[in-house]
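Lab notebook, entry 289. We have the chain sequence and a SMILES string for 2-oxoglutaric acid, and the next step in the workflow is to get a structural model of the bound complex before anyone spends time on docking refinements. Request logged below.

Task: model protein plus 2-oxoglutaric acid, output structure tokens.
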Amino acid sequence: MKELINDEDVAFFRANGYLKVAGILAADELKKLQEETQEAIDYGTAEVRTDPGYRYGTSTTASREILTRIEYVTNWSMAGRMLMGHPGLLRIVEQISGRDFVSIGDAMVLKTPGEGAPVAWHRDHGAEWNGTPQNYNVDIYLDDATEENCVWAIPGSNHWSDERAAAFQQKDCLPALEKDAVPCEMKAGDILLHDARVIHGSARTTNDALRRTFYYWFYSLTALAPFKSTPGYMGKRCKFLHQCIEARKQSTYDEDDMSFDYRADVPGGVPDEDVSFVYTEHGTWNVRD
Ligand SMILES: O=C(O)CCC(=O)C(=O)O
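Result returned:
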């Protein structure tokens, strides 16, 4: 399999907490993903939906709700499920996490035309996840992200203490005010990796561009070990990733190497033909007493 990132890229990611990788999605896959997500967006914008996973924010200019996010892409989009099995994407994860990793979730975040809700500066997780990246998102771009509607990141903030990062947590993302922030401008089909500890956010938008980003979240098993999960959680998530890899083999995409050799060593994480339902069956990695 052709490597999509090299050791220098991995070192950049470890140092800065983010990494852009261009041109991961081929045109046929991108088109399919755009079609399937557009259907979900049309459904979610026609009225405020109470279906699981549909999230809204309040518009500042009109008394209406704007669609901001739809959880669990892999549950409602077959193209999203096949993408989770993308051999190049999973190989990148393996290069960073080693063999033993699981996917713990996935979502689509939106900037909708006319008005796109802001995402305040934040860290997904704090400094307790010290050391090399143990949990991070692979952010897949279905549309171009410009300086106006892209995610901004503070390079190196993945190494900050929680005390230092606290000043940013949930502060409005106004990039012009942060001299160290860098714009993560992307092209449709590119991916961005972001460490859960890097400070990032995006500004409110008012232009007519749609920007869809999938967030596919990966954890190494070492990172999950200290947490109490619901019974069988790790095995179910491992099995689920096997199902996504199997789903991709059924795709009509024009690619030579359709399969990633997923070898995570998880009890009960054996390949299975069933399609599992994430909301009711998988549980959680972090049971709070
Ligand atoms: O895509 C964006 O604008 C940022 C999304 C984000 O960081 C999040 O939802 O945690």
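Notes for the group: The mean pLDDT is 93. Worth checking against the assay data. The longest strand covers residues 101-111.
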